[in-house]
Amino acid sequence: MSATEDFIVADIALADYGRKELDIAETEMPGLMAAREEFGESQPLKGARISGSLHMTIQTGVLIETLKALGADVRWASCNIFSTQDHAAAAIAATGTPVFAVKGESLEEYWSYTDRIFQWTDGGQSNLILDDGGDATMYILIGARAEAGEDVLSKPGSEEEEVLFAQIKKRMAETPGFFTKQRTALLGVTEETTTGVNRLYQLARAGQLPFPAINVNDSVTKSKFDNKYGCKESLVDGIRRATDVMMAGKVAVVCGYGDVGKGSAASLSGAGARVKVTEADPICALQAAMDGFEVVLLEDVLSTADIFVTTTGNKDIIRLEHMREMKDMAIVGNIGHFDNEIQVNSLRNYKWTNIKPQVDMIAFPDGKRLILLSEGRLLNLGNATGHPSFVMSASFTNQVLAQMEIFQNRDKYENTVHVLPKHLDEKVARLHLDKLGAKLTVLSEEQAAYIGVTPEGPFKPDHYRY
Ligand code: NAI
């Protein structure tokens, strides 16, 4: 790469291959293509400057090109060090969109790439963030607090934070006032995933959200599809590509039975594994039991299970004391957003043998070995290619609508966390029916009136849970 090029990818020569896959993905992403069709001419995102932090995959490539087709300028990084598909990054960079994403980038590179999505060549600011997990938002907000003199950088709580804080200090030294100026310029953020949304609600509760946020995750057509049906396809895909292990007959433990846990348990069960579930929430535990899974304590199945998958979005789920009890060659992986679900750092002193990228065998002092996937980072994107295009089309159509909503109607929104209205959620679903040959029944006026809706919808009250 020459110093003047405004992108960092593994190999720009992969662009042709990436473009072929983008062309195929477009045929499976009817929601995004319909958005281009409906809004391409009116250019509702003209003037939008979007900093995107979301797994740089082929599907994300179609999202980026949709945002651009609607008039936006875009800069992009991945939200995980292992999730980039290098051919996708190359194809997007080759069109002139600044992309900073390499599969297997270091943590230092990760945070410097996050910084780069805010560094416009004309020195201007971004007015929108499209985030997945909240890292891009957090980068700006923590930086701005540090510039205001708050003591937020002196005590990093982890190696990750140490690297993040170093990057913030570097930017503060190079561009005084950068974070405050950038924060002020932001109209808002749209957030993709459960973990990022949790962070936003915490910020809002603490009075620290300086702009409105749209919670894309809790559109029904996102979390009840991507988190569930997406993981149903991509979890086993990741385990197979990593290990080629025979799944049928194995005992698999899924920690957490929320949307991702439900999809993950279905994935393993569909592959013939005997699935057990751990849960903290009695409602989800009851769902797991009634879906036919044994609900257990992790402690009780450590020595008998072959595969362990965390899906909780919570920390310290599989700890060192658990891994000590597991059987030889047990497979351990996580599909939740962050890598703190498994205590990977506690294994660092043991003997690691790298089998191939994102697959490690770790030998304990007594000779027992574990197979660890993606160093505890989300394995469906680290060991495979994430969810299929079709389900990501639903997620990303919500993202496009959310970006448009904030850009056009920012003043209607208070500085808190919002979800898209139900009629848009239903619209996203509607856009995906034709592709599956699904035919929708039309309610008569009488039928609609009888159940208290209109024939055009919305068809459910907001409290309905699907
Ligand atoms: P959720 O909130 O629906 O489910 C998480 C479940 O874990 C809850 O039911 C909770 O009670 C349970 N849980 C929490 N602590 C537990 C513990 N100590 N032991 C057992 N269960 C526990 O969240 P959702 O939507 O399922 O997301 C989970 C994670 O996956 C989040 O980090 C989210 O961001 C991420 N995610 C990852 C995707 C991927 O492609 N890898 C796709 C979508 C979400």
TrEMBL record:
Primary localisation category:
cytoplasm
A Gene Ontology biological process noted in the UniProt record is: S-adenosylmethionine cycle
- Any matching Pfam family: AdoHcyase
Enumerate the residues binding substrate: 57, 132, 192, 222, 226
* The keyword Transmembrane appears for this protein: no
Q: Which domain of life, per UniProt?
A: Bacteria
**Pathway where it operates:** Amino-acid biosynthesis; L-homocysteine biosynthesis; L-homocysteine from S-adenosyl-L-homocysteine: step 1/1
Tell me the protein's name: Adenosylhomocysteinase
Q: Which organism is it from?
A: Martelella radicis
Q: Which gene encodes it?
A: ahcY
